[in-house]
Amino acid sequence: xxxxxxxxxxxxxxxxxxxxxxxxxxxxxxxxxxxxxxxxxxxxxxxxxxxxxxxxxxxxxxxxxxxxxxxxxxxxxxxxxxxxxxxxxxxxxxxxxxxxxxxxxxxxxxxxxxxxxxxxxxxxxxxxxxxxxxxxxxxxxxxxxxxxxxxxxxxxxxxxxxxxxxxxxxxxxxxxxxxxxxxxxxxxxxxxxxxxxxxxxxxxxxxxxxxxxxxxxxxxxxxxxxxxxxxxxxxxxxxxxxxxxxxxxxxxxxxxxxxxxxxxxxxxxxxxxxxxxxxxxxxxxxxxxxxxxxxxxxxxxxxxxxxxxxxxxxxxxxxxxxxxxxxxxxxxxxxxxxxxxxxxxxxxxxxxxxxxxxxxxxxxxxxxxxxxxxxxxxxxxxxxxxxxxxxxxxxxxxx
Length: 399
Description:
Elements: E1 5-10, H1 17-27, E2 31-33, E3 37-39, E4 48-49, H2 52-60, E5 64-70, E6 73-78, H3 79-88, E7 90-95, H4 98-107, E8 111-118, H5 121-130, H6 136-152, E9 160-163, H7 169-183, E10 188-191, H8 200-215, H9 219-229, H10 235-245, H11 251-265, H12 272-281, E11 285-290, H13 294-304, E12 312-315, H14 316-319, H15 326-335, E13 345-348, H16 351-360, E14 364-368, E15 382-384, H17 387-395
Parallel strand pairs: 1-7, 1-8, 2-7, 3-4, 8-9, 10-11, 10-13, 11-12, 13-14, 14-15
Antiparallel strand pairs: 3-6, 5-6
């Protein structure tokens, strides 16, 4: 799996973005300046110079992640350029707008470390004059705009803040590298089990079909059993089914055969086990958080091979409360020595249990749509068609 790491340096002109980037590259050649597309006059060093025609092509193709205009030029952060940059190493992006920081974080899935490089206005002026800039007044105006930008966005939080008039470039590079490498293994990834990691619905459907065929039960009974067991099946459900449908076996007999027989039918979705393994190999901790009884859920986990590829499992029946309650998410964090307050991800197919519950617990969320439209309510951070896609997104560092 591609690590898809990146660094965003935000700050006013002459705050040291070029100098710190050079120090990062000297510390580790994987760090490399991301060259934005520039359309307009002025210096070309550090940019991929483009034409108005190229700019229109990128816009038309939906390949512009962010663009801004300054110094009579347009600067473009483009998706093809980012694809190349994260494949080659760790791109270091220079941005001077909070909107740009947010656009990149939201619009391009990678594990972005955001860094605020700051210096006083007098320092910007002295540095600009010292390096012979012909547009010092414009750079001071940009410093003022950066201050206004920060003041207008009090909710923006940077992962690292460095005063470049107090910290040497080499030390700044060390701080940034340490923060980024420390976060490579930092994510807590919670994943639902039924119809997220395993195809529970297919297994339940097959079991009901086999059971009804074996006892010569009519199609109407099969349909009613499926409606009752589609989302949840436990010992209590067997009592209700026996009473409502006059099934040929007692609830105890039904439950005793259902658990092992269902486990034989359960299969993980294609590619899921490899995808979970890749996420863990990238340094993340993966915990299954599932509603249900401990006996049947752990039987399915073992039969499908999921138990062998995750760090821990939390089952609602074993802790006395179900998703969307906060406790299962807290228990999942504790199971791998984490604190829920540090955040993480919840991946699941159930809008209420996984997405609403995960959001309420302070987690970022990915909803597995299986081709369905979003049913409404508080929306997830991301929607993925399949669990493999979701795991790749989270493992790749989407924020």
